[in-house]
Amino acid sequence: MTEASAVLLERDSTDPAVAVLTLNRPARYNALTTELKTALLDAVTELGAAADVRALVLTGAGRAFCVGQDLQEHAEALRSDAASSFDTVTEHYNPIVAGLADLPYPVVAAINGPCVGAGLGFALACDLRIAAAGLKFATAFTGIGLTADSGLSAALAHAVGVSRATELLMLNETFTAEDAHAWGLLRTVVPAEEVVPAALELARTLAAGPTVAYAEVKRAVRHGAVSALPDVLAAEAAAQARLAATSDHLGAVDAFLAKRRPTFEGR
After folding, report:
1. Which of 61, 75, 135, 230 is the most exposed place for a label (fewest CB within 10 A)?
2. What is the Cα–Cα distance from 25 to 11, expressed in whole angstroms?
3. CATH says 7-207 is which class?
4. In angstroms, rounded to a whole number, what is the distance separating the alpha carbons of residues 139 and 173?
């Protein structure tokens, strides 16, 4: 893709199995236009079919991760046809979040700057998050008379509990990376210039691991968060049965018995 693209999809120069997806409207803090959302959805769809990708880093160009919907474009849509102005939720936001969550390998959000609204929804759709020290998060929706979208109501409730999620969504108060880390939303907080390098290092570690098992972990955690214990136990048993015959599992057991480090191939 060219530098003018609304998103950049590249491969890590150290490990080509790690993809890097960058929201690329730095002058507008990566606010989400139809062009950017369409390009992001196309990229996530492409990544879902990429057999040679084993981990993904999602980040933003410039000084922000993503400040959510571009309100100038949204205002124009309201004036043009208010009845269809929210079609973007089902056409873009929902499939982007589902696509990120369903990728069959780990996704690391490198949150390099402000992360607001749907941008926060995208970050929480990733599996792990690293953020810049001191940066600000906000849900933003009630500030313009809306409720949450991009899966944020469920993601926040699962991550920080119903009470705090309700508070964050209703009061629309900003919170810092340090707050988010204390609440368990982030793996770590680092200086801004270290966010992407730290995310790439983590992604490379994950890419070298049992990615088939990681995909099962993603499904299990999402299922377990909303299911009764008997259903969880049945799903776990089925997942273990699927993994039992994988080369990753068989090879790792042999490696353990031979007292050597296992090598995982994602199959």
Report:
1. 230
2. 20
3. alpha beta
4. 8
Residue 86 has what pLDDT?
A: 86
**Residues 6 or more apart in contact with residue 231 via CB below 8 angstroms:** 223
| 8 A C-beta contact, residue 126 and residue 44 | no
pLDDT along the chain (267 residues), means of 10: 76 97 97 97 97 97 96 87 87 97 97 98 98 97 95 95 96 96 97 98 97 96 93 96 95 94 91
Buried b (16+ CB within 10 A) or exposed e, 86-100: eebeeebbbbbbebb
Q: Domain limits of the chain?
A: 7-207, 211-257
Residue that has been written with the tokens 């969550």 in this structure: 101
Q: Distance between CA 228 and CA 213 in Å, rounded?
A: 22
Residue 258's contacts (CB-CB under 8 Å, 6 or more residues apart) are none
Beta-carbon contacts of 99 under 8 Å, excluding residues fewer than 6 positions away, are: 41, 44, 45, 47, 48
